[in-house]
Amino acid sequence: MSASGERGRRRHRAEAGGGPAGVNGHAVPVPGPGMALWCHGLSFSYEEARAPIPALRDVGFELAAGRSLALLGASGSGKSTLLQVIKGLDAPEAGEVGLDGRAPAAPEYAALQREVGLVFQTPELQLFAASAREDVAFGPRRLGRPETEVQAAVDEAMELVGLPPDVFAGRHPYALSGGEQRRLALAGVLAMRPRLLLLDEPFVSLDPATRRELARILARLRAAGVTLVLATHDVDLAWALCDELLVLDGGRVLASGPWEAGEAGQALLVASRLREPFLVELWRRLGRDPARAPRTAAEAAEALR
Amino acid sequence: MRPAIAQYYPGDSVVHRLDARAKFVAVTALAVALFVRDAFAGLAVFAAAGVVAYALSGVPASWFWRAFRPLLWLIGLTFLTQLLFAPGEPFFSWWIFDFSWEGLQFAAFLSLRLLVLVLIGSVLTLTTAPLALTDGLAWLGRPLRRLRVPTDELALMVTIALRFIPTLLVELDQIMRAQRARGADFGSGGPIRRARALVPVLTPLFVLSFRRADELALAMEARCYRPGIVRTRLHPLRAGVADAVLLAVTAAVIAAGLLV
Predict the structure, then answer these.
(1) Complex ipTM
(2) Of A86, A87, A120, A126, which to mutate for an interface test with B (greatest number of B Cβ within 10 Å)?
(3) Which residues from B are below 8 Å from A143, CB to CB?
(4) What rounded mean pLDDT belongs to chain B?
(5) Overall CATH class of domain A31-115+203-305
(6) Splitting chain A (305 residues) into consecutive groups of 10 residues, what average pLDDT does each group show?
(7) How far B215 CA lies from chain A's nearest CA (Å)?
(8) How far is B174 from chain A (nearest CA, A)?
(9) Are B27 and B234 in contact (CB under 8 A)?
């Protein structure tokens, strides 16, 4: 919180560090600690004209606080629905979502639910305010936080996503580039200081530089202890960021648990219209144990040197 | 999410397969006849025709109820005002209101007339795809082109609007969810507060709609769309024997309704 209060004194470090300030190793406070999550027997269907379409069938898994989960599955497998049910936007027909070990019946559940952040697919569509600062402030204001705390949270979140407030706060959201808009929308959720962050396809239609930038932001959140659930088709980024795996297929859980890159894991990913991460495949082709495949290119280079 | 506009019930019944133009002409003629004739007997004939058409269409009764429900208050209001204010010999008086048999009869007649109108009209909208209906209307409006009314362009505008209603509803739902996830509350407070709560929804929706409109215009131009020329169609409207039969039957029903 200390650094974020010094609004106006921070310089834009984009030129110096090869990336915006607050991301390249600069100490920026982040939300935390993480929230534990469990789901038991979740079922949900969408009402249609002729017959309901089931989207989730008996979905169950557990995720310890501070862990990060890759939510994988083909399009239409129920990933987005699961995220929205966890956030409480849709009530499940059966089953329960537990937050921090509390069932929905617990009196503190509503407060816990407010600490769950959900970043929608193409979240830049939700930008509406006349300035970046106002837009990011919307969430924390709606939570009824005092204005000083709101402003601190806005500075903190904008810094964290690499949009330093002294440069970007007054800009109109629609005057930003696509990648900046996506990061601004992420800041709008981070400003609510979520302890569990759900992300729906955050990497879709971003250029490689922005993609890397976003992955770095998520890695920082993870390092700060925020629990992450990352729904994505990008298995390489998921492999770099996540320690657990949940594969959905037609609304059912195909696999869940720690993500280990064994033979079974490969077959599973291929069966789910996915592929195994590039580094895992590389390790396999090199004749090395894929179960010990590195998570990042840097780790791979280190191992191969 | 499937938006609840639910005007068209997809199907393959005799009524569905009729040409949109024939159905439109038949329904319009019946509606006019319905308002010309002011006796219960005529109403019964038109109602019977509507029920037969409904039965032939295979549309579940619940769908008629869906079309009918929004108009319930209008019919109720018609009934009440006629009952209370129609002139006649009162059999019961209370405060400034006089209740008469004539008033009751007239109120019942007007309400039933509205009900039959909805019944007949909903057969058209439930069994005709919106696009077919628009095409049909554009064809029927062709003579207006001589008066420099751009009927085809108007029809295209309606078609595009219809095409994008479901898309925009889905997007509206997504934006509302996203803002709800950020703590927005659309359901509480007075009317002003509720209207203000819609700003975070309507701004993105408008931006998105304009962007979409721009893209669509570009895409249409890229595919050589030009206004002012008569376009050919992939599925040209085709009237057949069944449509001639429909018009003949309609004429017979109208004659019966006016004469009984």
Answers:
(1) 0.80
(2) A126
(3) 183
(4) 85
(5) alpha beta
(6) 36 33 42 84 84 90 94 91 94 94 92 93 90 95 92 94 94 93 94 95 89 92 94 92 92 87 73 85 90 90 92
(7) 16
(8) 9
(9) no
Residues B260 and B220: their CA atoms lie apart, in Å, by 54
* A1-29+128-193 classified as CATH 3.40.50.2300: no
pLDDT, one tens digit per residue, over B143-170 is 888 888 888 888 888 888 888 888 888 8
Q: How far is CA B137 from CA A60, A249, B119, B166, in A?
A: 53, 45, 20, 21
SS3 of A119-169: the string is ECCCHHHHCCCCCHHHHHHHHHHHCCCCHHHHHHHHHHHHHHCCCCHHHHC
Q: Which residues on chain A place their C-beta less than 8 Å from a C-beta of chain B?
A: 46-49, 84, 87, 89, 114, 117-118, 120, 123, 125-129, 138-139, 141-143, 174, 188-189, 192
Q: How far is B173 from chain A (nearest CA, A)?
A: 11
Cβ separation A118–B204 shorter than 8 A: no
Tell me the nearest-neighbour CA distance from A182 into chain B, angstroms: 13
B115–A contact, CB cutoff 8 A: no
| Residue pLDDT, tens place only, B107-120 | 889 899 999 998 89
Same fold across A1-29+128-193 and A31-115+203-305:
yes
Q: For chain B, give every domain's residue range.
A: 14-129+238-259, 151-222
Domain ranges of chain A: 1-29+128-193, 31-115+203-305
- How much is the pTM? 0.75
Which distant-in-sequence residues (6+ apart) come within 8 Å of B35 by Cβ? Answer: B113
What does the pLDDT look like over A62-84, one tens digit per residue?
999 999 999 998 888 999 999 99
What CA–CA distance (Å, rounded) separates B204 from A129? Answer: 9
User: Could you tell me the two tokens for B100?
Assistant: 């008469």
Residues of B in contact with A189 (CB under 8 A): 181-182
